[in-house]
Amino acid sequence: MTRSESPWHAGERAVHDRIGERALADRITIAADVPDAAAEFLEQQTIVFVSALVGTDVWLTPLTGEPGFVEAVDPRQIEVASRPPVGDPLAGVLRSPARVGMLAIEPATRRRMRLNGRATPTATGIRVALDQVYSNCSRFIQKRSPGGAAPPPDASAPVTTDLLTASQQRWVETADTFVIGTADRDGNADASHRGGSPGFVHVRDPAHLRFPDYAGNHMYMTLGNLEVQPSAGFLFVDWFTGATLQVTGMATVDFDVDRAAAEFPGAARVIDVVVRSVVETPGRLPAAWSEPEYPPFNPPSA
After folding, report:
1. Residues 286-295: pLDDT tens digits?
2. How far apart are CA 134 and CA 30, in angstroms?
3. Mean pLDDT over residues 23-28, rounded?
């Protein structure tokens, strides 16, 4: 069965059954069209996050531009007039046809939208033929007001390491937001937001991190992908300097609710990550965002 015939692949179905939410998932429909209101939302954005497989590793990258750099050219296709700089893990992949997951998130309004499909390169970026288009609730999104203008392309050279440095570990441990990218065994990619109070991500050592997963929207696209393809990409943002931290690694999910809640209050599961590679890039995104306003229902950090 293809994605056009059903929104759920075998990994997602396995997770629905393990958690006991197949009936709830069956009530969900996922469109491939961009509604007019969603098209307007996309055209207002200055950042979108894109995930894709690079060999056997999933990576995430931010694409930036002035409002209008993302455009719905018709209900089932969008164009993004931006591409990753030289040295970015996805720079080469996005110059050829690729299956991508995309996340548009607007911290100031706490709105987000996910778009998955097949990208082809254009003269200025990528065009994506859409397979899946859907929005998620604003849960765990920290409210921030936009910072300055987008930096020029190739403004700063990325630095690649095999493990998290000491400063990167502190960065991850104090983060309140990250984006996670995953893909199924056919390479269909997805990008999703995760948020919580600072400290909701635990760094065990330079090669291992873990974070909670909470009850959500019954889709379990991230967990379903990890069921069949354990590679995952992560993007952490320094909202004050515009630096980005891209991480790829192998992720496993612990579905034991009691163990999860003992470490992360309110969590239903825990995801463990073995780090494979790290890319830090100074000045990648617009900087000087406002201090965050945390939702009152953010779970406490352990």
Report:
1. 888 899 998 8
2. 6
3. 85
